[in-house]
Amino acid sequence: MSGFQTNNAVIKWIEYRLPIFSYVNDHLVDYPTPKNLNYWWNFGSLAGVMLVVQIVTGIVLAMHYQPHADLAFASTEHIMRDVNYGWLMRYMHANGGSMFFLAVYIHIFRGIYYGSYKAPREILWWMGIIIFILMMATAFMGYVLPWGQMSFWAATVITNLFSAVPIAGEAIVSWMWGGFSVDNPTLNRFYSLHYLLPFMIFAVVFIHLWALHHRKSNNPLGIDIKGPQDTLPFHPYYTAKDLYGMGVFGVLFAFFLFFAPNYLGHPDNYIPADPLVTPAHIVPEWYFLPFYAILRAIPDKLLGVVAMFASILILFVLPWLDTSKVRSASFRPVYKLLFWAFLVDCIVLGYIGGQPVEGVFIVIGRLATALYFLFFLALPLIGWFEKPKKLPESIAKAVLKEDGGGGGTPEGAAARAEDRG
Amino acid sequence: MRGIAILAAAAALFTAQDAFAAGNAEAPKSVDWAHEGLFGTYDRAAAQRGMQVYREVCSGCHGLNYIAFRNLTEIGLTEDQAKVVAAEYTIVDGPNDEGEMFERPGKLSDYFPAPFENEKAARAANSGAMPPDLSLIVKARPGFENYLYSLLTGYGEPPENVELMEGMFYNPYFPGHQIAMGEPLGEDAVEYADGTKATVDQLARDVTSFLAWAAEPTMEARKRMGVKVMLFLIIFSVLLYAVKRKVWADQH
What we know:
The structure holds two protein chains of two kinds.
Chain A: H1 9-17, H2 20-29, E1 32-34, H3 43-62, H4 72-81, H5 86-113, H6 122-144, H7 149-160, H8 169-177, H9 184-215, E2 231-233, H10 234-259, H11 289-297, H12 301-313, H13 318-321, H14 333-353, H15 360-385, H16 395-404, H17 412-417
Antiparallel strand pairs in A: 1-2
Helix pairs in contact in A: 3-5, 3-9, 3-10, 4-5, 5-6, 5-10, 6-7, 6-9, 11-12, 11-14, 11-15, 14-15
Chain B: H1 2-14, H2 18-21, H3 44-58, H4 79-87, E1 90-93, E2 102-105, H5 119-125, H6 144-153, E3 169-170, E4 178-179, H7 200-215, H8 219-248
Helix pairs in contact in B: 3-7, 6-7
């Protein structure tokens, strides 16, 4: 299968025993990629880079951090003040988490817009959701480690969610805590798991890529690759495009890291954890706010928890809820509208998640929660009555036509974002 | 790129929680700080005066746990000056070879000693209130420097409809408007060595500058590196864009 050729005797010797050179060649060099990918396709590799940044900075931080309730806060300050470039490592890790989520959220919404979850990519999509869930667990436990006020109370609020489980709830919660409240045993196990989970993410990323490379990338047109005329080798075309994207994303990352490192954080987390003082408002990091809003939109604790988990788990059945055979929203006028409404709804939920549960915020929160689930429930119907636009014959034909016609990718924003060379 | 900007703005919106986090407290006054902005550095003279305010006014009740005397060279003291400051404190050390704790003058490696033995002692001496450690105070309150400055200069008589609890003072910038700390700064509360007139406003600015440094002593190094990294990344991205165009030229 491989187009890999060499005359180098050493490489031949290794290749015969471990086909690593042809493997790299097949997956990073010759790998056939649709020629029409736009810049929204950059965020997968960006998320991968952020995972590596988090693992590297995290390992360095672990060399200086003390996972003990009496020492954790002080050791974090020790990293900030006394460890050489400790401030750089910590701010990179803290803001890197936000950047990782930003990249992954864009990546997920890109998948939803272009129907990347549809056959034959359902398992690829599942692996993505599993990565997302693992990321949320990792980020939550990581946020607890500095042992500030918000760390402690976020841990208390989130672990308490499990007390909503009928009958066994209380037992489950004290099992998770390793005691009768969030305390040193909780911190210890969160630290252990926070170190473990990123490597599990890494493994699932490989399965994600395995599935991707088996059935190849989706593309903005959402039509299948029909032959070599539709694709380009990954290198140099997409290595060049991904690297450029990394540079631009790096500027955004560097801006937060160097000039607003605490902007995405909360001042209360610079107060050492105090089990006797509850902060006025307990808010999670920005990337959890939409789910936090759904949790709090439901007045019943158990149902709120169920709704919150359902809002994530429903993504697993998205490939079957969406009954349309057409992948890309570019050819689905009704779905496209619904997509943008869904995106706005998620942002509204995020805003509500950061507000206190009172007055008009309650009403908006409930409406937005209902709309969130309505999006998924409406999908089977839309697939049934929507009249999709005519699909192009092939990627190659669409690309040629577009170059002649002066840029007519179906989706306006994507077309402008995309460099047309 | 427009999409990224929109998403970044959305992310920024999510964090606009400070407005309610401060409860019913008044929005802090806005002050221009020398250490703000991309190139801002701490005002050394103000920070040194602020250290004097901390030592003579605040340190009776508030600790500064994370600042060692060696750190003082970062706000412009010479090593000898920092040693003199350290030696003015008595540090409990030990146990010595006889197993006894003993007192000695402070050294550069010592930290500012805490004003109270423990939290219980602190509360007992302050009618139940706990004076917080000031090392991180600027980063630990919504409003940051402006909040601290406003709090220090914001004391006043309570409005007629407000009844203060016993031993509390009126300060509209404090959440709940009632604070256990009495007005700490008064005209000429300290005598500045450099002749600066010690108005309440000046004292508040100076001690806030000092505590801003205490909260984040690595800020200057961070910004210096940040400017270089940003410049590098911007130029590098432009080059990568050129490479990308060149690579894709045969496809368009």
